[in-house]
């Protein structure tokens, strides 16, 4: 008698590891995302360090719904790159059709994690397309990054929003005001794969 199929159970570590692995495979580093965060926040917090920016990117990427968005978007990009979607969806994603906005809707699910302030940050980098976003939007490479460029911008925007919330909490603490941390730091105690390093 054949063994009964094991019931499905979410493996959160596998999802987290796959998120970092796929970002790496698609050529995006945490440092590049952190550079977008620095661009967005340095004006407001002159003492902000790149280490802080990287840490906040890691914290955003520790959120399950962010990981889900990253994995979904990247796989849709790859399927479009390989011509495996049905038309007209294939054509719209492959050509990053301007009137196709589902990629941005997926990005909004990331931006929303740290409140509405993230929309301003996201809109700014999405329009300016600095750093890694310029590379991801280069259509001459043959790669499709219709979803990934929005996802990377959204992660940077969310990390920027997280910094703003944390800095406000620090100010309130300095003034002796009662405050509640905007989130905990569950990912601070886990090992985050470094850029170029494959997860276990």
Description of the structure:
With 200 residues, the chain is mainly α. The chain is globular and about 60 Å long. It contains 9 helices and no strands. The longest helix has 27 residues. It is 58% helix and 0% strand. α2 crosses α9 and α6 packs parallel to α9. The chain starts with 11 loop residues before the first helix and ends in a 26-residue tail after the last helix.
The average pLDDT is 90
Beta-strand content estimate = under 5%
Number of strands: 0
Number of helices: 9
Beginning-to-end CA distance, first to last residue = 34 Å
Mind describing the biggest β-sheet?
Answer: none
Helix amount: 55-70%
Output the radius of gyration: 18 Å
**What string gives the helices and strands in order?**
HHHHHHHHH
Q: Name the structural class.
A: mainly alpha
Shape: globular
Poorly predicted runs: 186-191
Question: How would you summarize the topology of this molecule?
Answer:
Elements: H1 12-25, H2 30-41, H3 50-61, H4 64-81, H5 89-94, H6 102-111, H7 117-128, H8 132-136, H9 148-174
In a few lines, what is going on in this structure?
This protein has 200 residues and is mainly alpha-helical. Helices cover 58% and strands 0% of the residues.
What characteristics describe this protein?
9 helices, single chain, 200 residues, mainly alpha
